[in-house]
UniProtKB/TrEMBL annotation:
Protein name: DNA (cytosine-5-)-methyltransferase
Top-level taxonomic group: Bacteria
Its EC number(s): 2.1.1.37
EC class: transferase
SUPFAM superfamilies: S-adenosyl-L-methionine-dependent methyltransferases (SSF53335)
Metal-binding in keyword set: no
Transmembrane segments: none
Any single biological process term in GO: methylation
Catalysed reaction, written as an equation: a 2'-deoxycytidine in DNA + S-adenosyl-L-methionine = a 5-methyl-2'-deoxycytidine in DNA + S-adenosyl-L-homocysteine + H(+)
Family: Belongs to the class I-like SAM-binding methyltransferase superfamily. C5-methyltransferase family.
One Pfam entry name: DNA_methylase
Amino acid sequence: MASIEAKLKRIRAGEPPRLLDLFSGCGGLALGFVSAGCVSVGGVELDADAARSYARNFHPLESGRPDEWHASSKNILQYPPEAMLKHLERSSSKDGKEGVDLIVGGPPCPAFTRIGRAKLRQVRQHPEAFKHDPRATLYLEYLKYVEELKPVALVMENVPDVLNWGGLNLGDIICSELDRRDYKCAYTLLNAANYGVPQMRDRFFLVAVHKKARIDPVFPFPTRRVDFPPGYSGTRKVALKNILAGDRLSSPWYKEPPLPDSNAPPPVTAGEALGDLPRIRDHLKNAGRRGPRNLDGHLEYGDKSPSTYARLLKNWPRFESPGYLRDHVTRYLTLRDYRLFKVMKPGEDYPKAYAYAVRAFEKRLTRERRKGQVPPEGSREYKELRAEYVPPYDPGKFPNKWRKMGATEPARTLMAHLGKDTYSHIHYDSNQKRVISVREAARLQSFPDGFRFEGRMNSAFRQIGNSVPPLLAWAIADELLLHLEVKTRNPWPERVRENDPAQGTKVRVA
């Protein structure tokens, strides 16, 4: 296995850094790092569809299909690090001898999130059941890979609540372990909307660099100024409860998130991300239809002029659009829901939709009374009539279940449960009265139009919701490669400025 010095010499001489992606999902982090100038050795992912998506995009065969060697799902608990590396490079002449220069990944987070904790408590009927979820300790496997493969640097991503997990700050625990392994560490919370992603998504990021590299871990400078809703600042305060005590920081590794300039441009909006995409119409004639939906399909973009952001996603290097749109499919819901989507205003949520539904039902009752046809309250007929208008969820228990996006602001956080429903992201266009499509979710997460997803619709939604936004990943990778003096570095598009030769060659987005 090559030494740290040999790895630094090689990447500073012009070879692209070799990237290993742990808990890779479909490859959001990898896409950012590969776009910044790295080359993927492989991804380690248990979910079969996500593993195939990763292989299709980063290890395709000449036919375009995924390399089956890379496409197989991989359980990180079943392979020691060196064996996994040799397994990934079995068809390569390198066969693991050069090792890896960078390791990235986000250990599964359900046990760290407050939503995930609540579900675990219900399952186990124990107030601290989340602490016993085996997924909560998978970060130890990540550390095992770092210890054995000795990368030059690493990046770890997770939800903000990893900093307040049952009263523990896992950020400090991980940094302490990395410090013992001769890595300089820093972590912070970054929001994707500050980095050109049309989504307000707050996440924990940890960057560590081996001390022999003689540089400090750094985070990218934000390029967008965003006015976040109160809920985001409240969530951040809860996550940082163990770190911020008045004016005093309790952690030597926590860094305050860098702030954008006061004159920085506003965030990229949902309208900029989706405005050039064609309207979807088949959901209305298929209302109530059940069953899995396949992906792909070929749709013309239409004649709407794309925004700068949309042009980037259509012309992303190595992931350019084929000239038509794929995966622009959405869920078939009920006519009841479609009626509510049409009358909801941007920013309104489930309680408001429920109130609209009750009013519509009462108007129907008034019409039926005039005809003398109102079924007795409590009867089966009455309940069936009400169900045609009113959703069954308690508005007091599910306040955030539905939300209609606004075209003039970034979308709210895309979650993994997109794989089960997409009511959290109702399209802002009332005439379409629907939830977002797979390709629209990908656009909001900053996946380029040429990126392919394996599996069916629900799986693709879940893969997207679980991902790190690639554009944010590119920003983090760009900053790291810049300080590591990597010759193959390709600058992050948001960072590139006219008349700034220090930033390198401008990426073409038009």
